[in-house]
Design goal:
Number of domains: 1
Number of helices: 10
Oligomer: single chain
Helix content: 25-40%
Structural class: alpha/beta
Radius of gyration: 20 Å
Bound molecules: zinc ion
CATH architecture: 3-Layer(aba) Sandwich
CATH class: Alpha Beta
Largest sheet: 8 strands, mixed
CATH superfamily: LmbE-like
Number of strands: 8
């Protein structure tokens, strides 16, 4: 018998910083547990805002992808992750902005071609577990919606040799563009998760921010009209999921959360100390984000729900 394979977690994200905010705890915990962790990011976040006023210059916007690549690298250093990839698309910008129409953007990419790029990475790294976003992309950003689209397709297709046969090893090895000895083979990952924000977090954050004299971004402004409140609530309902629909609660309190908190501070151009998210402080994070929540969307192995481990059922 050969040594058992190291388990591999692949987290699929849209922009730099999404990985730390969304799955930083799971990534740090997987590293600590001896698993391999691969981060895939769809874009380089070129069109985001720069939240630090003295850094918000035309020069820095021009080279924002580069700056964010450096921030991502430092955040991965904190989380202990040593392998990451990028799908090579351009940031599409928020929904309704000109970047949506850029032919280089993730939003404009033909979906099968984009899913093929992720499929290639799935075949190359052979993850047991993949995480992505829900169909709303968490909050409706085009690149986050695409992250969902390619995540579910790569999960379905990577194990099927009918899809993207040009990626697979040819019978006469050594040619055909394969990058590893023997070339790539189909690979069917075992589990696919969508990250989720449990509805209870809204109340926890609102309470903590209120105690600090701040308004939560989860609450509509006091002077909102009934229509604006209804619109706000409809949006919140799409972002948040009822706690009882969470299939997998991952305890990341302690060391993983400390690393997540430190890693988020490496995303300097994106994280303002004045954002309600950061004003919560580490104590607030422990309260709201001490557990990361996931929904098991698809599984090729048997498991018992609710779970407390993304790798449950794989042994
Ligand atoms: Zn994002």
């Amino acid at each position: 018998m050969t040594e058992p394979r190291r388990r591999t977690l692949m987290t699929v994200h849209a922009h730099p910083d999404d990985e730390t905010i969304g799955t930083g705890g799971a990534m740090a915990r997987a590293v600590a547990d001896g698993h391999r962790v691969i981060l895939v990011t769809g874009t380089r976040g070129e069109l985001g805002e720069i939240v630090v006023p003295e850094m918000d210059t035309p020069d820095n916007h021009r080279r924002l992808g580069e700056i964010r690549a450096g921030e991502l690298e430092r955040a991965m250093g904190v989380l202990g992750v040593t392998e990451w990839e990028n799908l090579g698309y351009r940031d599409s910008g928020m929904m309704g902005t000109p970047g949506n129409h850029d032919p280089r953007s993730f939003w404009q990419a033909p979906i099968d071609e984009a899913a093929g790029r992720l499929t290639w990475l799935v075949r190359r790294y052979r993850p047991d577990v993949i995480t992505t976003y829900n169909a709303f992309g968490g909050y409706g950003h085009p690149d986050h919606i695409r992250t969902h689209d390619v995540g579910v397709r790569a999960f379905e297709r990577a194990g099927d040799p009918v899809w993207y046969p040009e990626q697979l090893a040819t019978e006469h090895g050594g040619s055909g563009g394969s990058i590893e000895e023997g070339g790539l083979a189909p690979w069917a990952p075992s589990k696919l998760y969508e990250q989720a924000i449990p509805a209870s977090v809204r109340g926890l954050m609102a309470e903590r921010l209120k105690s600090l004299g701040k308004t939560s971004f989860w609450e509509p402004p006091d002077d909102a009209t009934p229509e604006q409140v209804a619109e706000f609530e409809a949006f919140a309902a799409k972002m948040l999921v009822p706690d009882d629909t969470i299939t997998t609660w991952l305890d990341v309190s302690g060391d993983p959360l400390e690393k997540k908190w430190a890693a988020i501070h490496e995303h300097v151009t994106q994280i303002s100390d004045q954002s309600p998210f950061m004003l919560l402080g580490y104590e607030g994070w422990r309260e709201s984000w001490g557990r990361e929540a996931y929904i098991l969307r698809d599984s090729r192995v048997g498991t018992t729900l609710p779970e407390t481990d993304l790798f449950a059922g794989l042994d």
